[in-house]
Amino acid sequence: MKVLLFAIRSSHKKFFIELKKEDSNLFDIVFPKYRFVFTLRGLKDLKHINLEPAITFAVEEFRIKVIPLPKVILNLYFRSLALFYYLVYYSVIDKKYSAILLWNGGKCRQRVAIEIAKLHGIKTIFFENGLLPNRLVLDNNGINADNSVPRDRVFFENYHNNLSLPNSLIPRRPKNQKKFQTSLVSLPESFIFVPFQVDSDTQIITNSKWIKDMRQLFDTIEQLSKVVSLKFVLKEHPSSSRNYPDLHKRADISDNISFANGYPTQELIERSLAVITINSTVGVESLLFKKRVVVLGDAFYRIDGITKGADNQIELQKVIENLDSWIFEEELVNNFLKYLYYDYLIPKDEHLYQNFYKFIKRVIL
Question: 230, 253, 289, 290: which has the highest count of C-beta atoms within 10 A?
Answer without folding.
Answer: 230
